[in-house]
Amino acid sequence: MVRPRSGGAVSGRDRYVGANITPGLNANAQNFTYSFNGNLSGCQSTQSGAPTSGTVSAGEMVTISGQQFQEAVPAGNGSCGNSTTSGTATATWSDGTQTVVQYSTTGALAAVHLQGTVVSSLTLPAVNPQPGQPTSTTVSTTRYARSSALGVLAFQPPDPTACNTPGGVTAAGISGTIGLGNSS
How many other C-beta atoms are found inside a 10 Å radius of the C-beta of residue 35? Predict the structure, then answer.
């Protein structure tokens, strides 16, 4: 259980987060990578004035100050029946603060358990930097530092029968709740 202490805690629902999976998941276990992005809403915090919404992403190409950078791409091993993954995601809250979470997941069918830790920062490499442009940038945690993450998620492919095809499931919606807080 994650319980708040003086640092506060937050929990929120993913209203719609879309994941892309390569190669697609089917009945055979294999290595894969994935990316996701979407909106967070209905968030609640023990910290007065904390934002109630934001966005979350991992493995995406992002634009910062007009330049493109690549987020770390999460990876895993598994099938439609079960999987394990690890990665780093960034939540950008509606007030502009950010939380970088290093996480791992275990999944059985559509149910996924997530646990992780808020880390201080993540360095993103630049994509095709022009002369004089930076070759990387660092995204720093500015909200919920030193917290733990715990969540239960559901992956919802648009066509679950794709698990029975060689190409497998290449996209899925993600919904559920993730809590951030400090154990006491």
Answer: 20
Residue 105 lies in a domain: yes
Mean pLDDT estimate for the chain: 88
DSSP states of 16-35 as a string?
EEEEEEEEEE-SS-EEEEEE
On whether residue 157 sits in a domain, the answer given is yes
- Nearest alpha carbon to residue 55 among 16, 92, 5: 92
Structural domain contains residue 55: yes
Q: What is the mean pLDDT of residues 37-52?
A: 86
DSSP per position, 30-85: EEEEEEEEEEEEEEEESSTT--S-EEEEES-EEEETTEEEEPPPPEEEE-SSEEEE
Alpha-carbon torsion, ordered 59, 37, 142, 54, to 10 deg: 180
Tell me the C-alpha distance between 9 and 152, whole Å: 16
Q: How far apart are CA 16 and CA 51, in angstroms?
A: 18
Question: pLDDT-based confidence at 183, cuts 50/70/90?
Answer: low
Name 131's Cβ contacts closer than 8 Å, sequence gap at least 6: none
Residues 168 and 156: their CA atoms lie apart, in Å, by 13
Domain of 146, in residue numbers: 24-161
Q: State yes or no: pLDDT of 66 exceeds 50.
A: yes
Q: How many domains does the chain have?
A: 1
In a domain, 16, yes or no: no
Q: Please tell me the pTM assigned to this model.
A: 0.87
